[in-house]
Design brief:
globular, about 55% helix, about 50 residues
Length: about 50
């Protein structure tokens, strides 16, 4: 069996990858946020 993504699931490590500020830091992350806004998501990213 292959290793899973985010095996060290501390709150801090998850936020470093998928928090709002982390998303907005990259072009691909901005695209994710834009698509989630378009879809009308209540939560755009994991809240602190």
């Amino acid at each position: 069996m292959t290793k899973r993504t985010l095996s060290n699931k501390t709150r801090f490590s998850i936020l470093k990858v998928s928090g709002f500020r982390a998303r907005m830091a990259t072009t691909q992350g901005k695209k994710i946020i834009r698509n989630r806004r378009k879809k009308g998501r209540k939560n755009l990213a994991i809240l602190r």
